[in-house]
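Aim 2, interim progress. The first record below pairs a target sequence with its structure tokens.
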Amino acid sequence: MFRVGEVDIRGLQRFDNLLAGLGREGDKAVARAVSRAGDMGRTQVIKTLAAQTGLTQKVIRRSLRVRRASWDVPEYVLISAGTDEPLKYFRKRETKDGVEAYLGKARGTEWFAESFYRGGLFPQRRVDLPTMNGHVFVRAGGRTQLEKVTSGVFIPEEMVQGTTAAVWSKTVTAALPKRLDHEFNRLLNGAA
């Protein structure tokens, strides 16, 4: 979970007097600025996390939830839920001895022995099986006893480490003062 409130805001002290003079309208402006800066950070987190994990941006977007800033709580929270991601969501290729999947820049391509996601004779007659829904399986016993193969990638863990955490901090730290300046100028020019 990321919070804009955890980003260093020492450079924002110049807005204190202005904020005190604006009263409740200032609170609204801060909430809009924090939400916009958080949205900009979220966009960068999605892009970076996709490269870091090897998942598509669509899958990452689905796993993220946002709690935007309000007038009373000027905090933007980016929440992620998820478990060990199945290999279905990664770029994968079936070989005679198993499945290879690309698990992002840090892990590279990993091989999962004796796993499969297609049926039929190898290599000419392999076909996608609708009942498997694109998941990768390995035999756990007999012919019909299958186990789903997972990747070992957890989105909540990945988003708080490495380049993703650095990009979040950098983006929000750069965007928040600009957004506050924009919102306060909008209020002051609209009031005049």
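The second target in this work package is listed in the same format:
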Amino acid sequence: MAITTLSSRELNQDVTRAKKAARNGPVIITDRGKPSHVLLSFEDYQRLTRQRRNIADVLAMPGLADIDFEPPRVTLGTRPVDFS
């Protein structure tokens, strides 16, 4: 993956170059010499912002009932307490 750096002026003068560079990796756009923005391909953006599933989403998936899974039962014992 190549990282390209362009100034804001270079971006304004040649947007096509920036878009082509974004196919190979992020394009850092600088403003007065300091990084200010990053241009990504849409695929890279989607990969970075993909929603992470939580356990509730996974348990609600269709077809989950077809999976055989029977976790072992856990029994918790009690201990006498000494308050002396």
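The beta strands are 4-7, 27-31, 34-39. This observation will shape the mutagenesis plan for the next reporting period.
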